[in-house]
Sequence to fold (200 residues):
Amino acid sequence: MITVVLADDEALLRKALAALLPMDGGITVLAEAEDGEEAVAATLRHRPDVLVIDLEMPGTDGLGAVSAVRRELPEQAVLMLTRHARPGVLRKALKLGVQGFVSKSAEPGHIATVIGALHEGKRWIDPDVSALAVIDDCPLTDREIDVLRETRDGYSAADTAARLHLAEGTVRNYLSNAMQKTQTRTRHEAARYAREHDWL
Fold:
C-alpha cells in the first residue's frame, strides 16, 4: 500500500483524485491540503510515501512547500502536478529533488502509475510537460520572476526584499529590469504581463 498526501487548491480536482486514486487498491490518501502551508504541515505529520502537490497555489506555492518539506524530510518523494512548466521552474524543482512531473490534465490512472514509479525510486517527467519546458521565450531571469511573483501576490518592494532575503535596492533593480523587458510602466503591469505569458 502506497500512502500519499494530496495538495491542490482546486477543490474539485483534489477531491476527484482523492476519490479515484485509491480505487485500484494500491494507494491510500492520508490527508488533503488546499495550500502550501497545509501541504507542509500534513506531509511532516503523516510522512507519506509520496507527496502529490500542485505547482501553483496561493501563498506558499508548490516549490516553496517542497523546499520546506525537504529541509525536514530530505528523502521525501514528490510528484508535482502542473499546467505550465517553464524551464526555470523545472530546473528549480529538479534541484529541490522533485522526482516526478505530470500534467494536471492527466488521467487519474496515469497519475496512480507515476506515483507507483516514484515509490519504486524512479523519476518521471511527462512528455507534454518536458516539451512545454523546452519552449522558452521568457526573457526574465529566475530572480526577476521571483520578485514579480511577490508583486503579483500584493507584497511591497520592502516586503519582497524581506521575504526573499535581498536588499530593497536589489529588488527595485530586478523590478526595473523586468519592467524594461516587458515594456510596462509599473511593477504591477509587469507582473500581470508575465502572468498572462505563463512566465510566473
Summary: The longest helix spans residues 168-182. Strands lie at 2-7, 27-33, 50-54, 77-82, 100-103, 124-125.
